[in-house]
Amino acid sequence: MHLEKLEIQGFKSFAKRTVFDFQAKSSQDSKAKSITGIVGPNGSGKSNVADAIRWVLGEQSLKLIRCKKSDDVIFSGSRQKARQGFAEVELHMNNEDKELPIDYSEVVLTRRVYRDGETEYLLNKNKVRLYDILILLAKANFGQRSYSIVGQGMVDQIINISPWERKEFFDEATGVKQYQIKRDQSVNRLKRSRDNLNQTNKILAELEPRLRSLSRQVKKLEKRKTVEHDLIIQQKKYYGHIWQNLQRDKKQVGEKAEVKLALKQELDENLQSLQKKLAGLAREESRKEIFNELQKKYNKELNKKNDILKDLSELKGKMNLEYVKAGKQNLSWLENKKEELEKRISEIKESLSNLQNRTEHKKVEFQQNQVKFSEIISELEIMKNNLQAVEDDLTRIKSGRINPRAEAVKAVLRQSDFIKGIYGTVSQLGKVEPIYETALANAVGGRLSAVVVKDENTAIKCIEYLKKNKLSRVVFLPLNKIKGFKPKTEQKKLLENTGAIGTAINLIGFDPKYKKAFEFVFGGTIVVDNLKNAKAIGVGKERMVTLDGDILEKSGAMQGGGKNFNSSWDLNFLKKQGFGSHEEKLKQKTLLKSKIEDFQKQKQILSEQLNDSRVELQVYETKQKGLNQDLQDLLKEKEKISSEIAENQLDPKDQDIFLRQLKDRRQKVQKELNEVEQEISKLRQKIDEFNLKEEQKKKQVFDLQNQMQDYQNKLNQVNTEYNEYKIDLARLETKEEELIKEVKQELDEQTELKNLKPEEEIINVDKLWFEISKLKKNLEQIGGIDPEIIDEHKEVSDRYEFLSKQVNDLEKAIEDLEKVVLELDELIEKQFNVSFKKINKAFERYFAKIFEGGKAKLHLIQKQEKKPDKQAEQTPEQMAEDQDDLPDKTKKRLVEEKSALVNTGIEIMVAPPHKKINNIAVLSGGERTMTSLALICAIIDSNPAPFVVMDEVEAALDDANSHKFGAILQELSYKTQFIIITHNRVTMHIADALYGVAMGEDGVSKTLSLDLQQAEKTVK
Fold first, then answer.
1. 480 with 560, same domain?
2. Statement to judge: residues 544 and 439 lie in one domain
3. Is residue 951 part of a domain?
4. Could you tell me if 510 and 637 lie in one domain?
5. pTM for this entry
6. What residues have CB less than 8 Å from 785, skipping those under 6 apart?
7. In the chain, count of helices (H) and strands (E)?
């Protein structure tokens, strides 16, 4: 779309009909649009051209078109020329591209005003409203006040106006003006609807108390039987609920009492067993006499040894004298040294023997404790598994459902109509022959209830649903992400072995679209007939499962045993599973917990004993090594001494008879000494063994006594709890008797409490009792009422219903208008933000181009406006309280007030090159003009209007900056058509055509046109 022609008649100084023809394309570049210059001396009326365009586009501000009165736009006459009776401006636009949303290839806008004040707007010679013109222009992104017509003062005005006024300029620049016009119209209709609603609500408010009063009285007449009936129903609910709770409490207390009784019996049996063991130890024959006998023998042998040592000492003395006589004093010393070594060797051997004995006993004790420790660990593991199974069974029995995960899976499957892409569980999507059910169900395991979905987005939606509703975790298999198993050659070879039936994936039927899911859950699992053949194939070569459900993992781990409870492929995990009575399971749970506690204590004690034994054995081992080393050293030394003795022995011929007799006697005594020492060593060993056994016996007694003390403490605690439960049970039975009496008084003597079962669960018993009390009170308050009340009630009710319908219609209309306003607000905000970002970016570019550097930015700011009325002075909390006081039907959000609460302003932040400036107020006049022009050019570049009129906008620029501005205009001419009113020669130079405007003595503006390209050709 472009401006083709402007016709002015009687408008200001254009008394005669004056026509301006504008070119569509540039004479120099066919891709660019034309730039038309309008020149002339000051006062010639050339700016009236811009005023005429602004006026014909619907401008209502006389100030903007430089008038004081409305008829100032009409030529007022001169000395030579009479005044005109009307003013008319026609704007011809080419609309072949349909930029204006109207079915005309040429659009002619006409505005005409007469001296009597009558104004006409015409569109292609047809009368229209100003609103129609404004909406049409707004849809084409230009208007009389926007950047489409940049007047003489607008350049400075963009800089000088406040950020909030600058925002109004940007409304048309961003193309949201059309929506703002519609919004204002909707807001006005909204206000009118609210006024009508308030008036209707006032009438309803007057009728409502009367209608309420009449309704209460009418209801009293109708309610007597209803209240009595409701009272009986509520009482039956109440007493039935109390009875059920009482029976439930009795059952629970009874079960707990039975559990405590069973635990008491268990503890009694354990305590008696320990007492029998302790009594058995006490009845054993006393071993004191054995010890005394050993001690006597030991002392006897010690005395005997001492006597021998005395004889030996006497013989040594005599022999020493003989050695001195023979000159062999060193031989005496050597023999004494040898005896000392033999004594030390004997002591070490005795210590080693004793240490070895203690080590053997400690090893036996350690091995026994290790066996016990392993047994306790195994027992603990079994009991913990049993406890977990019992707790799972209790949960099923109590909740009436199989498990939380099954409920979660069931909930997800119910969402298949709302969350697209849920196909079902693995068990639902696969079809299996009965012979393979056990094998395949065990091969899949927990993934039997995994849910197959289309993709990861579906899985995410399902997981968010589970989290939002606080449901258990579920496994999801998105078909676009999971990777299926691809069989290998080695696996195919294994299928040739005896007993191999086939791969699991080939023994199940399913839709091909779910193939990846079944490949994922089965992998390369091979089905074999039994464990024997599976072993022959080779454990660990591939994952295998037998027809009985035994699993042999590829890692080598094996899993099997009795049948699982859920070992069928057709696993209906949404049904209740029963596992014995609640009472039995509760007993099992309590007993298992008690046993686990005892075993854990035993485990702790044995663990400490094993650690102590390990340390002692290490100490014994270290001592043995040390003693063995000492023994070896002493034996070597003894051997050396023996060699020296042999070398220093007297020659037999030199020995006299007395010395030989002494030697013989000494050998005999030495032999006796050795025999006595051996006997002493044996007795010492027996005494040590005796002491070790006595220590073990004492330790066993202490352990039994500690265990008895623990069991006795537990038994005392259980007895106390059992007695408390018996007291609670007696209290509940008393309460039951009182309830039976109360029911017979309130309802009927024949009423049976066991038959009063409420149809639904009662959550708030206090509320139910309050309703019963209220019904009783209502029966007391109902009295005689005039029957004519019914007729009056019908009359008032009909009127109230009629007005209520009107209120509903008005509220519906208000709601629709509010939605429209909100949608327009969103549309305005969205379009404004998008266009604003483009303008901001372009502003930075044009600013840098004009200033040859620097930075510039537009910034949105907000401020809170205060309203002068009382509501504006209120806090948000007070406004919310006032809204709460309104009736529910009139409690609506005031859209127009909300949008007026916050104003948006636009702040211009600039920094010319080599200057630290952020505030535009400190810019020079030329810099301010250049900044404004950069902003206007940015707007034109981002959201070009069909044509742009500029009235002496570059007047403050020097030649250099005029050249920059001219270059920018030539660049923007590829996007829009320019009409430039100017004095600037540089601007005239870039124009494709010039219109000269001059004023004669008659005060009438005249025009002269010049095609510059044609003029250049003529000159050439």
1. yes
2. yes
3. no
4. no
5. 0.42
6. 217, 218, 220, 221
7. 25, 24
